[in-house]
Design brief:
Strand order of the largest sheet: 1-8-3-6
Structural class: alpha+beta
Shape: elongated
């Protein structure tokens, strides 16, 4: 029983990710948070920004190719959701803007980000499908198991890619070393022959 509880705990820690952070955003500055995410991962976030007269805060979520996944202007409190298409690095940026001549003050920004199973709205799903609490829990466990399997598949795929890259690099280094040795031997042979002919010409050797 203890082993099963430990395994379940590791599964939950591995697959469910909830990040809560709070910071002060200085006037006319940009604060960005980066996270590496897998393919087809649901991300849901709740944010809240303190209101300051004459100041505004925008947010923008982009991938490594600068594709905008979500954005908001003059925000105060709200939510965002998006799904990643490929394994990529996602950047969440909050931008403070203060008019010129206005003495700005730092905003207090809080962000609660969820991903994977934790980001799904099971309450809305239960109301729409009229599911019982036990059925919802079973659905959560099913999604959690699928997420764990998918994560292990992705890890195995990345391990295979890294192994292939290492093998390819080793082969290239080996071929380059052989080529370098052949070049050095050829150059040494040429130098010996050249010096021998030179000394023969000068009649220093027979």
């Amino acid at each position: 029983m203890r082993a099963h509880c430990l395994s379940l705990g590791l599964v939950v820690l591995y697959s469910v990710c909830v990040q809560s952070i709070m910071w002060h955003l200085e006037p006319n500055t940009r604060k960005c948070l980066r996270e590496e995410l897998g393919q087809n991962v649901l991300i849901a976030g709740d944010y809240e920004v303190s209101e300051l007269e004459g100041q505004r805060v925008d947010y923008q979520i982009t991938d490594s190719k600068n594709h905008i996944l979500a954005r908001g202007e003059n925000i105060n409190k709200g939510k965002f959701t998006f799904v990643t298409e490929t394994y990529d690095t996602v950047e969440i940026c909050f931008i403070s803007m203060v008019p010129s001549g206005h003495q700005g003050r730092p905003h207090e920004v809080s962000l609660l980000a969820k991903q994977g199973v934790e980001a799904k709205n099971y309450e809305g799903m239960a109301e729409a499908a009229k599911l019982k609490p036990l059925e919802i829990e079973l659905k959560k466990l099913e999604d959690l198991s699928s997420a764990v399997v998918e994560d292990f598949v992705q890890m195995r795929k990345r391990e295979e890619e890294m192994r292939d890259t290492n093998e390819s690099t080793n082969n290239r280094v080996l071929y380059f070393s052989i080529f370098s040795m052949i070049c050095l031997l050829s150059l040494a042979t040429w130098q010996v022959l050249y010096l021998r002919n030179f000394f023969k010409t000068k009649k220093l050797i027979e």
